[in-house]
Amino acid sequence: GVDTYPDGQQQQHYSISTSPNAIIETTLSNMSAALTVRQQIAARPGNLYGTEPRSLTFTKGALFSFLLHSTPYEADAAIVRIPAGVKLCLHTVSMDTKQVIDFVKSSSSQGVCLKFSSEENGEMLVVWTYDKDRSGDVWHTGLGIEVEGPRIVRLAAVVDRGFKKACAMDMNVFGSVCKGDL
C-alpha cells in the first residue's frame, strides 16, 4: 500500500506474510550483527564532560562517525565491539576549528592524539597527533585501519597533561562498516 502524509509525501509499504516470531528473530539477528561504540568519561575533578555513557550502533553498510571526547586519560577510551562478519574501516579524523582556536588560546597543552588498541595488543598506540605548534591541518585522511570481527578495540582522544585552563578538544572519527572478508 501507499501512505500519504499531510505534507504530500508518499511512502510505499511492502508486506511480507511471515510470522511475528520470524520478524523478531530477523530484527534480533540484524542487531547482533551490529557494531557498537561506547564512551564513558570517568568522574574526576575538573571533568569537562558528563559521565553518562554515549553509545551508537552501526549496521553493515553504514558510514561510521563518532565524536571522541578528549581527556588526559587513556582509560576514558571508547570501546568498539565488532561482531563476527563485520569489518570496521577507519578513514579520517578531524577536529572542530573553533575548538582548536579555543584550545590554542587557553591551554598550555601541546595537543591531542588519536590512540588505538586491540585485544591482541592492549597498549594504546598513537595513530595521529594534532600538535598546536606543528600541525598545519585539523584533519587527517587515509588512516587505513581495518579491523574485522569478532574483536573489541579501543579508540581514545588523549590530550597531554599540560592543562592550565580546561577546554574541550574533541576528535571526530569517520569510516565505514562493511561485511567482513573472512
Structural features, described:
The chain has 182 residues and is mainly beta. It is built from two helices and 13 strands; from the N terminus they run E-E-H-E-E-E-E-E-E-H-E-E-E-E-E. Strands 3, 4, 6, 7, 9, 10 and 12 form a seven-stranded mixed β-sheet that branches. It has a four-stranded antiparallel β-sheet with strand order 5-13-8-11, with no helix packed on it. A two-stranded antiparallel sheet has the order 1-2. Strand 9 and strand 10 (125-131) form a beta hairpin.
How would you summarize the topology of this molecule?
Layout: E1 2-4, E2 10-12, H1 20-32, E3 35-39, E4 54-58, E5 63-68, E6 70-71, E7 78-82, E8 86-94, H2 97-106, E9 111-117, E10 125-131, E11 139-148, E12 151-159, E13 171-179
Parallel strand pairs: 6-12
Antiparallel strand pairs: 1-2, 3-4, 3-7, 5-13, 7-12, 8-11, 8-13, 9-10, 9-12
